[in-house]
Amino acid sequence: MKNGHRLGRPFGWFWAAYGTSALGTWLAFGAFPLIAVQVLHAGPAEVAALSSVGAAVGAAVAVPLGPWVEFRRKRQVLIAMDLTRFAALLTVPAAYALGALTFLQLLLVSVVVAAADITFRAASGAYLKNLLPAEDLLVANARFESTAWTITIVGPPLGGAAVGLLGPVATVVADAVSHLLSALGIRATGGHESRPERRKAARMRAGDLLDGWRYILSDTALRPLFFNTALFNGLVMAAQPLLAVQMLGQLGFAPWQYGLAFAAPSIGGLLGSRLARPLVTRFGQHRILVAAGSLRAVWPIGLAFLGPGTGGLLLVIGVEFGLILCCGVFNPVHATYRLQRVATDRVTRTLTAWAVTTRATTALLTALWGVLGSLLGPRTAIGLAGVLLLATPLLLRRPSEKRPVPA
């Protein structure tokens, strides 16, 4: 690390843009379902469709954007995706003010935002890799992780207060403006970014859509990590709706207790992100990747033993704190290793394929666990997810030192 952790002014603007956009997203957390219920009087099926179908279709739309973005200047793509999200989100308060808001519009906006979000994240990885030398990537990713967990703590409560004071679309306006400010921040990074060289083929072929997946599956180090993260994220998220049903329904926890159970442990993410670099420096990247990735899998099984009262609340807080602490260490190390491993001309396609698979797996497992929860009961289904999570560390193994040769 050079200059005492200083990563330069361009990264400073990029980091500020990330934080601003993330704050807007968390301020508006749950805004669309809230608007659907309170304004459009939507039923449970429509609200579920808004969350699942919008994300799934958005992920499908993002698939062809990966190969297209690969050969574009990433800074321009990032600004375009921010402006796309700004424009799409702004149509919601505009239609609400005119009394013309419909469920179909909410669904279409959720699709556009989901596709733009995946594309933005994929392009941001490639941009970060070009912006900083390899030895600085872990510090940068740790700062992003720390910022994300900080905003996770403060964003939803502030968003809830804003909705209470200003109405259901207030946080959507804030989210839209945050993406506009993010675009301005990315523009302020300045500098010259050369246009990536295009392959000999003049037009994108249908087979190019699968390039990201082919690249991942052909790499002996990325392949197990890919399956590990998709399965881990999917199982953790699949149990969350069942945990909400159990806590708020069967066990009678108050909504504020439920919120506290997931907000307070986010402090573990801050701590973990601060520990990531010192741990890697002392023990090495691979050891920390395997250790943190394995330890994060042991915590969720504890939720199967959840009971009522203060003891149950403390159990959830403890389990979530341990889980988030390990994730706070694992996530920046994982993001850094992935960027270092992937060839520069494949980053966008690879990250797009990764994000699409993770979201699709999460949607599929969430639907499946909803059925299991109905058949077996929430506690049993949560316990089953915890048992399967214990097997995910088997997919974490020592990568080969040889990196794949770019095609």
TrEMBL record:
List the InterPro entries hit by this protein, alphabetically: MFS (IPR011701), MFS_trans_sf (IPR036259)
Where in the sequence is the signal peptide annotated?
none
Write out the entry's keywords from A to Z.
Cell membrane, Membrane, Transmembrane, Transmembrane helix
Per the record, the major location class is membrane
The organism's superkingdom is given as Bacteria
User: Which organism's genome codes for this protein?
Assistant: Streptomyces atrovirens
Segments spanning the bilayer are 12-35, 47-65, 102-120, 225-244, 256-276, 288-306, 312-330, 351-372, 378-396
Pfam (any one)? MFS_1
* Record's protein name: MFS transporter
Q: Where in the cell is it found?
A: Cell membrane
Q: Which Gene3D superfamilies match?
A: MFS general substrate transporter like domains (1.20.1250.20)
The upper taxonomy is:
Bacteria, Bacillati, Actinomycetota, Actinomycetes, Kitasatosporales
Membrane topology, from the record: Multi-pass membrane protein
CDD domains given in the database record: MFS_MefA_like
